[in-house]
Automatic annotation (TrEMBL):
The keyword Transferase does not apply. SUPFAM superfamilies: L domain-like. Keywords: Leucine-rich repeat, Repeat. Transmembrane segments: none annotated. It comes from Lanius ludovicianus. InterPro entries: Leu-rich_rpt (IPR001611), Leu-rich_rpt_4 (IPR025875), LRR_dom_sf (IPR032675), LRRC56 (IPR040091). PROSITE patterns: LRR. Coiled coil: none annotated. This is LRC56 protein.
Amino acid sequence: GELIMDEHLSPRKLQVLAGVDDLQQVKALEMRVDTREISLGNFGVHLPNLRELKLNNSLLVSVRDLGTSLSHLHVLWMARCGLPDLDGISSCSSLKELYIAYNNISDLSQLTWLDHLEVLDLEGNNVDDINQMQYLRLCCKLSHLTVEGNLICLKPNAESEEELDYNYRAEVKKLIPHLKYLDRIPASQT
């Protein structure tokens, strides 16, 4: 529950948070943080076996606030964190699942560095150009994508008028042919 404050996440603070003495044992961690005034430091160096990190409802100025030592992370939740972009996500190079619903993200180019990404939840963001989906084509393992609640579900880009024959599912499938599920429905269904 409560927001973690102080100068940064020291090993002692992480021990208290995780409820363990040996930080090597920590595989999953859930916390709410506010990085507007306080840095997290490079807390990942103290958690070498951390595979899942849940930061939902935190206040993050940037993904870079997580530091550069989370390259072993497999699952990351950052829903409702006020993120304007994904700059710095490439330091989480082992990510298989990324849940970033309800942020302010419109540029997906940073995701091209995530070679292992299988699941991506972009629900309720600011993706307003269908061409942003081209970046996800480079995530060759991506099989589950959620984009509902983005402007691209209504029209191809911010400048275009709504077209009656526009089908975002068909457009996304064209741009990411290896996708298996789109908005929790088999991608083959348009």
